[in-house]
Automatic annotation (TrEMBL):
SUPFAM superfamilies: Terpenoid cyclases/Protein prenyltransferases (SSF48239). This is Protein farnesyltransferase subunit beta. Catalyzes the transfer of a farnesyl moiety from farnesyl diphosphate to a cysteine at the fourth position from the C-terminus of several proteins. The beta subunit is responsible for peptide-binding. Essential subunit of the farnesyltransferase complex. Catalyzes the transfer of a farnesyl moiety from farnesyl diphosphate to a cysteine at the fourth position from the C-terminus of several proteins having the C-terminal sequence Cys-aliphatic-aliphatic-X. The keyword Zinc applies. Belongs to the protein prenyltransferase subunit beta family. Residues 397-425 are annotated as: Disordered.
Length: 425
């Protein structure tokens, strides 16, 4: 009101002026409230990595498994690897007592004839051999390294090598490109890789690349994400990735990222699956490196050649179990396999380059960040470097001489340099 204190002279303000004064008096608080509430809303909606839940799920799995895991009795080194690698990606320390127990268990899985079996007393097999060596390299202690009998491991690799350059998974077992990768991976990490051992292996792997651009399990089969990764990574270790049709392979793998879901399918016309977040996305760093070595000038120096944010959205929004663990797709059960490879794919999508040239693209909070993983071996890069440094101080076993190789062959140069198999700039 305005006027003198006299009731007769006091008159109310026009309504429009009252609204104007009220608005300006409260505008700042009003809009600050809107901004705050909007910020809180979008923060709550941002994808969040359930770190603590995953950690508790993984920690429990190292000590106790339910009866439902009985079907994986022949894959016990894999369980060790999947859990340990998931923990290192989450940057959760492995207690010394647990690490020692894992070493002792894997020592019991080692076959008297070389290589590792799926469990104590079983036959040696290339797949659990790969898993056991990776798990021991993740632990990275003298006790872990000393578990590996390198001379007998080399004997085992020779026992599964085939005349055409391929490898069988176990004595009398099946041939596919997984076995070539498992053999090349463990041989290069432990410094037993020789030219004679992998003679004709690159040419056999190259025959697995088909008209689609990807690689099948054996020559003539449909291209598949897991086999394509194994074949490509094996060729990177052997220094022969340039022999692939790289452009056809690139076209095939980028076409496997689903336009709506953001995750990857394993084959053409198949559904999305969380595990291909690594098997497919892990190919892109290998291809980036291969194109760089070929002199390709149009490569990005900040991003891989796939939609990294979309993959992170799929993993964080669709593949997490609220109680911990990750899964194939919504509606599926959690397991340690998908936990390992979903987290591995998330790491690939978050990190570009190597130590010298490193860029990060983290969707959501900084707490979503995982440790980097090596795109060839799928363990953390510092663990690869540590293992290479340890084993390259040791002489190469002489098993090659018993199989007709010259002792002058020695370890191949690609194996020694494979620890830096990320993008180089």
């Amino acid at each position: 009101q305005t006027g003198s204190f006299s009731k007769e002279q006091r008159q109310p303000l026009p309504k429009s002026i009252c609204v104007y004064i009220f608005y300006h008096a409260h505008a700042l608080n009003f809009w600050m409230c809107i901004v705050t509430k909007t910020s809180v809303f979008f923060t709550c909606c941002m994808p969040t990595l359930l770190r603590e839940q995953h950690y508790q799920y993984l920690k429990k799995g190292l000590r106790h498994l339910s009866d439902s895991y009985e079907c994986l009795d022949a894959s016990r080194p894999w369980l060790c690897y999947w859990i340990l690698h998931s923990l290192e990606l989450l940057e959760e320390p492995i207690p010394a007592a647990v690490a020692s127990d894992v070493c002792q268990f894997l020592a019991r899985c080692q076959s008297p004839t070389g290589g590792f079996a799926g469990g104590p007393g079983q036959h040696a097999h290339l797949a659990p051999t790969y898993a056991a060596v990776n798990a021991l390299c993740i632990i990275g202690t003298e006790e872990a390294y000393n578990v590996i009998d390198r001379e007998k491991l080399l004997d085992f690799l020779w026992s599964v090598k085939q005349p055409d350059g391929s490898f069988v998974m176990h004595v009398g077992g099946e041939v596919d490109v997984r076995s070539a990768y498992c053999a090349a991976s463990v041989a290069s990490l432990t410094n037993i890789l020789t030219p004679k051992l992998f003679e004709d292996t690159p040419s056999w792997i190259l025959r697995c690349q088909n008209w689609e651009g990807g690689l099948g399990g054996v020559p003539g089969l449909e291209a598949h994400g897991g086999y394509t990764f194994c074949g490509t990574a094996a060729l990177v270790i052997l220094g022969k990735e340039h022999m692939l049709d790289l452009k056809a392979l690139l076209r095939w793998v980028v076409s496997r990222q689903m336009r709506f879901e953001g995750g990857f399918q394993g084959r053409c016309n198949k559904l999305v699956d969380g595990c291909y977040s690594f098997w497919q996305a892990g190919l892109l760093p290998l291809l980036h490196r291969a194109f760089f070595k070929e002199g390709e000038s149009q490569l990005s120096r900040q991003r891989w050649m796939f939609e990294q944010q979309a993959l992170q959205e799929y993993i964080l929004l669709c593949c997490q179990n609220p109680a911990g663990g990750l899964l194939d797709k919504p509606g599926k059960s959690r397991d340690f396999y998908h936990t390992c490879y979903c987290l591995s794919g998330l790491s690939i999508a978050q990190h570009f380059g190597n130590v010298d040239l490193h860029h990060e693209l983290i969707l959501g909070k900084e707490e979503n960040r995982l440790a980097p993983t090596h795109p060839v071996y799928n363990i953390c890069p510092e663990k690869v470097a540590q293992a290479l440094q340890h084993f390259h101080q040791l002489p190469v076993p002489e098993a090659d001489q018993r199989h007709g190789a010259s002792s002058a062959d020695g370890p191949s140069a690609p194996a020694a340099s494979s620890g830096s198999a990320e993008h180089q700039s």
